[in-house]
From TrEMBL:
Belongs to the peptidase S1C family. It comes from Salix suchowensis. This is Protease Do-like PDZ domain-containing protein. The keyword Secreted does not apply. Keywords: Hydrolase, Protease, Serine protease. InterPro entries: DEGP_PDZ (IPR041517), DEGP_PDZ_sf (IPR046449), PDZ_sf (IPR036034), Peptidase_S1_PA (IPR009003), Peptidase_S1_PA_chymotrypsin (IPR043504), Peptidase_S1C (IPR001940). Coiled coil: none annotated. The keyword Protease applies.
Amino acid sequence: MGLEPSPVLELEGGKPITTNLVPPRLPLSSQGQHSLQRQHSRYHVLFIRSCSEEAMLLFLLHRRLSASATAATPAANNHLEEASQPNLSDAYSAIELALDSVVKIFTVSSSPNYFLPWQNKSQRETMGSGFVIHGKKILTNAHVVADHTFVLVRKHGSPTKYRAEVQAVGHECDLAILVVENEEFWKGMNFLELGDIPFLQEAVAVVGYPQGGDNISVTKGVVSRVEPTQYVHGASQLMAIQIDAAINPGNSGGPAIMGTKVAGVAFQNLSGAENIGYIIPVPVIKHFINGVEESGKYVGFCSMGLSCQPTENVQLRKHFGMCPEMTGVLVSKINPLSDAHRVLKKDDIILAFDGVPIANDGTVPFRNRERITFDHLVSMKKPNETASVRLLRGGEEHEFCITLRPLQPLVPVHQFDKLPSYYIFAGLVFVPLTQPYLHEYGEEWYNTSPRRLCERALRDQPKKAAQQLIILSQVLMDDINAGYERLAELQVKKVNGIEIDNLKHLCQLVGNCSSESLRFDLDDDRVIALNYQSAKVATSRILKRHRIPSAMSSDLSAEQTISESESASSS
């Protein structure tokens, strides 16, 4: 969807910094918090600088007493008081709203070990913020509860922590909904209403529970920019609001309040820069919540499945027959699984999306003299909703209707809240390639991981539904596989001459082998050949030696049980 490589996030030294590389999953900091830091994009999960509630209330009380004492002073003093009063009332309103709606979240989580996919890493404890929304639900960030095993929440002024369940989570938009069944928790709690996108220089107050203290805190800032930004947690490109509030760990999921309504949810900042933080705007929040309410689960954000090139060069526009008054972007690549693949062609010029003209740089009008990439219009569509696309092809204009839906990459960018798939046969460990697997190579994974796998993870597109890129991740040594250990980290392409679609398909081909010898064809024309019966016997021996509970992950064993039941019933 939209222009690729990913839009420029910032200019440093005159060179654009792009985010076409999705950085590694991030380690736990010494304080036990997610750093979620991505080196190339230089973002961090945001939390807000501490300013205690008591200090703020004392400050407001002092100002009010001073105002009463000078009530009879000249008009100049009254004018000065009136000029400062709106900021004070905004801060006071934010505190009043937050006391009965913002909660502190305690999460125990455990992430999978992708090099040893049958076991998890040690558990860790993290903290974040959230706030109550309509329907007795708590809204927070997805990274606050990612890979959770246990979640507790505590409201302001209460020593009691209540058990919470994660009802829905959207990792692309970094949002999650929690529910608390204990009715005692909801006594005295008020929900916050969602407002609108604030204009530039409008003031917002971000409320939450940052590190360095246990009480609620408030930080004020103004809106600096509104544009699509890379969401670090889900590695997606969605609208975000930049504010000039100082950001510290601990406040993720807290509301940014403007007036008496929520303008966004705090979620990340820009490391290496002072007072640059980001909040998730209301349109993204509503898209997430409405999708959950309508379908009962997170539905995702739509994509056209296109890679487009700007047409800012005059010679380029002339080459494709664009008139001087025409503007648009050039289609350079189309995802084979998208509906756009049915009607669009390479070298088409997209002139307008849903009747909105697209500029040569890929932007569309937004509010008062602002512009935003047309990706935002696509992402705000509901799944299976149609959009009209006007394009130029061979010097002639055409208009098509395209059905939009979320699209999954060939190599998944994240795998939160799910166990990794694996299959072990004769000590050969087969896994689908994912970016979390590559992240196990460390923070510099795009330099230290196998170069070929890294390039395929970032560039290759799926050619059919449910397709996976399967690799031989490691060889658990045994007499049966001696000499094959150097073939680890290569892609598996065929089993007994049949091209594999995914890990489930590989598992079926191995299980249904009827020949004496089993052959695997790998990258670089490498071959693994095994005596099938000897390999089956060796598998049990190897699993017992390495204390591995099962030869396959739970998702594969469940599917195998279902297929065996269907076969038995049909016979």
